[in-house]
Design a protein that fits this description.
The protein is mainly α. It is built from 10 helices and no strands.
Length: about 240
């Protein structure tokens, strides 16, 4: 891998780590397209491992705002959602599935933009967890459903609970990759080399978080969700 490619990946991972630690999701959404162009063989293992590091650091930092009961309901929903996503990948054409799910995300963004705020109660958390598992398994974009259900909460509460949710999910994914032999030495070495960059992104998020009150976090989360869905549509239509 060239020096230029290494620098590009490092910058993408730094910005993605900062975003993940600031709004609770977005690492794969931001970094995956860049890594896919420069070093596709590192996906998805390297980014999943890096996301695990970020989410662990955020959970430790924001542990005072963690609601294990709410996160638990979301994780309960994630299990059938993940299974459904895997089945949809088998039953439906990838392009049609991705466009359908992106449209669903954009629909959620639209209603959230006009003031809809689903309360983070058991039913909504489980539903969001299922949708996140389905989206994450089928398209690798699992953040928007959880971001929408937590969109009206305090910033620290959003970051801690979404990070706890994605920490468990990332560990599950890493276990699955390891079981199938997909965590190659190349991926592990890249993860180790990029870990200082990931930590720097986490540290930088402390300064970004000072600017993110509840309303600003809501706007950023909705915007990133919309951009992620739009990128997914563009990827399926033009690439």
């Amino acid at each position: 891998m060239s020096v230029v490619a290494c620098v590009i990946i490092a910058v993408a991972v730094f910005l993605a780590s900062c975003m993940q630690a600031s709004i609770g999701f977005g690492m794969g959404m931001l970094a995956a397209p860049v890594v896919a162009l420069v070093a596709p063989t590192l996906l998805p293992g390297m980014l999943i491992a890096s996301a695990t590091t970020v989410t662990l650091l955020v959970v430790i930092r924001e542990r005072g705002s963690l609601d294990l009961r709410g996160t638990g309901w979301a994780l309960i929903g994630r299990v059938p959602g993940t299974i459904a996503g895997a089945l949809l990948l088998v039953w439906l054409p990838t392009r049609g599935l991705s466009l359908l799910l992106a449209a669903v995300v954009l629909g959620g963004v639209a209603v959230a933009s006009v003031g809809w705020r689903p309360a983070p109660v058991r039913r909504n958390l489980a539903t969001a967890g299922a949708a996140s598992g389905l989206l994450g398994t089928a398209t690798s974009i699992g953040g928007p459903p959880m971001a929408l259900v937590y969109s009206g909460e305090e910033s620290a509460h959003v970051r801690s609970n979404m990070s706890a949710f994605f920490l468990v999910g990332s560990l599950m994914s890493l276990a699955a990759l390891a079981a199938t032999g997909s965590l190659r030495a190349e991926i592990l070495w890249a993860f180790v080399a990029l870990t200082p960059i990931v930590v720097l992104g986490f540290v930088a998020s402390r300064f970004v978080n000072r600017l993110l009150d509840r309303n600003r976090l809501r706007i950023v989360s909705i915007t990133v969700s919309a951009i992620g869905a739009a990128l997914l549509i563009g990827q399926q239509l033009f690439f």
